Amino acid sequence: MNFEPILLFITSFINLFLGIFVFTKNVKGEVNKSFSLFASAIAFWGFGLLTLSLVPQGYKSFALNYCLPILHLGLVFIPSSFLNFVVSITKNKSLINIIFCYFVYTLSVVFIILGRIGLFDPDISYLYGSYRVVGGPANPLFGISFLVVSSYGIYLLYKKYLTTESSLEKNRLTYLLVGLYIALLSSITNILRVTGIIQVYSMAHLGVLFLNIMITIAIIRYRLMDITIIIQKGFAYALLTTLITGIWLLGIFTFEVILHIQSLFARVLTIMLIMFIFQPLREKIQLIIDKMFYRERHDLQQLLKKVSKEIATIIEKETLLSTVINIIIESIHPKYAVLMLLDESLDGYKPEFGLGNYNSSLVIKQNEPIVRWFNEEKREILHEEVMENPEFNGMRDDIANAIERMVSIISIPLISKDKLVGILNLGPKLSEKPYTHDEITFLTTMSDEVAIALENTKLYTDLKKHALDLEKKGEELRIANMAKSNFLKIVSHELRTPLTVILGYLQLLSLKAFDNEGEKRGIKIMEEKSKHLNELIGDILDLSKIERGEVYEIKKQPVDLKRIIEEVIFIWTPKAQEKNITLQSRIPQNFPLIMYDHELAEEIFSKLVDNAIKFIKKDSGGKVTIRVEDKGDVIEGCVEDTGIGIKKENFKKIFERFYQIDMSDTREYEGTGLGLAIVKEILEQSGGGIRVESEVGKGSKFIFTLPKEEVTGELPKIGLKGKSPQETRVLLVEDKEDILELAELYLKFHDYKIDTARNGVVALEKLYAQKPDLVIYDLKVPQVDGYEIGHILRDHEDTKDIPLLMLVPVEEEKNLDKIYKAGATTHLFKPFDFKDLMEKVGSLV
Fold it and tell me: N or C: which end of the chain has fewer CB within 10 A?
């Protein structure tokens, strides 16, 4: 029996099948298209030979007109399509190769024309039971050109094999080179026979069949041209169909040639044989093929189901990551695997968990092209694919660079809610085999599950954190409530004690129980206790403002810290002397002016000095030292004492509201625990800060900073008019009778000429009639308030230069800018110390 037609059919069918499926896998791929043309040319040549061999004797005209043109069409384009395929797969597109490709294609067209005019293969002859081609004058020329082009193509492949560093590509090229070399040697037999040089058995179809086997192995094992399982399945069923066809042809040959059964009856018997005898065998073969190609897929699918159930129950991120990586290592066997997750602080993706030798310090930024590609395409990237796939045009170099930095063979995105939350990077497999389609499908599906699981772990972490925050806030609230309760108890004590003393001395004074010295001492004590009450009320008002979230109004002006520190020392010296404490300052001689709020600066130093004096034991010979330094960008201040010191665990607590180290009823040191909290709030709202350095038994240092700003304007001068009190006429406008009377007494005591008014209308009359040197005006005076009087003063030529001291309720602090825009020269908050009032008046006249 002549098996040549069967072999030709198998060879042609496989080539056509491979060409179609390679093309449909990636219709845009240049390598895929060029291979499809090459495989199609071989298929046409094979089908031409097949039909020529099947034409019965006596049908020569049919063979010449229909079969031979098909054979020629495939044959003449084999060299040109082969060379185009080699140039594409080796990416060796030099000018010489491109020109040579065009030349060979042109030569193919020339041989088509030569065939039509009878110079190529002009005739056929019936020999050994089938028609054979008889070569013409141009046939030897074609044979030579075929060998030259094929040899050059194999040379280019071998050159690429020697230069490539990719083991995957070397494996692909090995199968291609072996298959093509055998096919080239076998084709020489056809050339020798057709040209008539020597009559040998035609081996070309066997060589091409061997080439098909090599290409198929390269596709299945090494993803040649990015072809995956679809070829495996199709190839398996193609072989099965070919086997059935072969049995059918064998059956016909047996019945007709050997048994001499009539043709029609022979075909019926053959069909029955296939249907009733081969069908069970076909099913067995199909089952074997399915198991052979899909056992791995089945195992991976079962593993994926198991993994999905397992990771769905994991709520701890670290456990999830380690579980996923371990599953991948055990099932796929890569040399290393690492999960990179989004880190908002780095604005990129960094390794979070992995096994094997990977780059743990790598960061892939969110603005890199590979991240954009993952977000848009939402699929994996193979290292080998980057340089071949046209999808990467325009960003190929950037993505290749990212892949090289990740040192990965395959990178798979973790997408959650259309956002890239992570990247799974895998190294080469321990077996050095490429990743199969089923493995990639398993990994991508599992990555989707992991992305969802990561969101669940994030929700769990957020809920856990929220619960801890609530628990912490509950504890803080409990402590705050306790602190507030203690604070109210302390405030109650702090208020009652001085009031009791004041009331006691007033009753004794009313009974005339003191001599002159006793009266003076009593008055002095009442004055001190009243001042303490005033400070306490001021602290409570400050606290109220802080609790409401209000900010301090910082009225920036040139401030002389040296002068402020001198004033603070002057004010607190009497109290320090009572405990035998020395107050001193260390200030550079030419310390610069700074832009800041004069009153807030005084309050900072005053509260820190008060705190220092409070915690120095009496008669211990203690010292309080105030320092300031110019540090360039900031001004650094320090109040240092030689007091009892503070334990390190209390460093932060002392700046909390209501906190005192000793909160007991029998505490040794008085105070509300607000002073340091207020100082901290003022400094932080000013853009500075405060810290403490302390050692128990040796004292403390309270170090604070303020931003240094360039000084604009001049320092306010004292006594601009240069008048004495006796020459100064003051208009005092206040609607509260007791404050009006006291202020009038103080001003008269200091020899100022006083005129008073209790509403705005009377004030205006006296203002125009008397033209005072200074106006002291309560902001809330009825009929004409402080804003109106300020505008009136500044809008008239004869009153615009009169200084205006505005008495401002402390709750109006937020409106200071408005008050100064209205025309105030300076202000004094109510309630105020009358000594402060006299200092303000003195500075204005």
Answer: N
